[in-house]
Amino acid sequence: MPNELMDPNDPTTVAGRGFGIKTFAELFTPRQMLCLLTFAAAVREAMRELERERVESERVKAVGTYLGVLVNRIADKESTLARWDNSRENSQGTFGRQALPMVWDFVEPNPLGDASGGADGALDWIVSVAEAQAAYVLPGTVLLGSATALPWSDVSFDAVITDPPYYDNIQYAALSDFFYVWLKRTIGHLFPEHFATEGTPMKQEAVADSSLRQAALANTMENFG
Ligand SMILES: C[S@@+](CC[C@H](N)C(=O)[O-])C[C@H]1O[C@@H](n2cnc3c(N)ncnc32)[C@H](O)[C@@H]1O
């Protein structure tokens, strides 16, 4: 189970709002947890099956990674923070917006059904993206690191274009841990270098973190008590 702790000092998620929620596992009902753990185990089994059939290892890794994303999409729909959208008559999922606020009544689509919110529909989205990307003639290169410490010498490029966070509006790392804890359990073994830690790296995140500021303020007040 994803028993990783959420930050109790982060007021931008339910964990920091005094509702008593301490771990990511607590964002799911026992039924949702059973569903997600079963899907996660099936992803690992699918990869073992491909290996038994001697499928090329890079292909196993690619298929496994897409299936890991599938579990994430299901987790988005199957949590107690998934909101029903009256105007569209469907589930907005956990991340209808980039936040993890308290939701007082949640919606739970059938993960095995073929309506919106089901695993089949989630897989269709992933396949569509993979097909569209396969058509690009200029593949991208993805590196993990901080934009504040690029691993290239000065004057290596004509331009560096970034899309940085918006001050303290969205705490990307804290929010992405919702998916990180599931990816760890589905495909963490494929990318041990990226899943070695409890949560996503936050120290170099270019955001103004109000919880850090509040902690610093509390510390200051204690010292001057
Ligand atoms: C406005 S979002 C970019 C969204 C992205 N362009 C997209 O379309 O999905 C800002 C991103 O910057 C990332 N970020 C924050 N601090 C960073 C840093 N020091 N180095 C690199 N990326 C960082 C956040 O994790 C977040 O994904």
Outline of this structure?
This protein has 225 residues and is mainly α. The protein has five helices and two strands.
Please tally the helical runs, counting DSSP H or I stretches of 4 or more residues. 5
- Name the overall outline: globular
Oligomer: single chain
The spatial strand order of the largest sheet comes to: 1-2
Strand content: under 5%
Taking all residues together, what is the mean pLDDT? 90
Provide the list of bound ligands, each named once.
Answer: S-adenosylmethionine
SSE ordering: HHEEHHH
Topology summary:
Elements: H1 30-52, H2 57-77, E1 84-85, E2 90-91, H3 119-134, H4 172-187, H5 210-224
Antiparallel strand pairs: 1-2
Helix pairs in contact: 1-2, 1-4, 2-3, 2-4
The structure holds S-adenosylmethionine.
Residues 146-148, 163-165, 172, 204-206 line the site of S-adenosylmethionine.
Report on this model:
This protein is mainly α and 225 residues long. It has a domain at 14-136 and 173-203. Helices cover 40% and strands 2% of the residues. It has five helices and two strands. The protein has helices spanning 30-52, 57-77, 119-134, 172-187, 210-224; strands at residues 84-85, 90-91. Helix 1 (30-52) runs antiparallel to helix 2 and helix 2 crosses helix 4 (172-187). It is globular and about 65 Å long. The protein starts with 29 loop residues before the first helix and ends with a helix. It binds S-adenosylmethionine (SAM). The site of S-adenosylmethionine (SAM) has 10 residues, from loops.
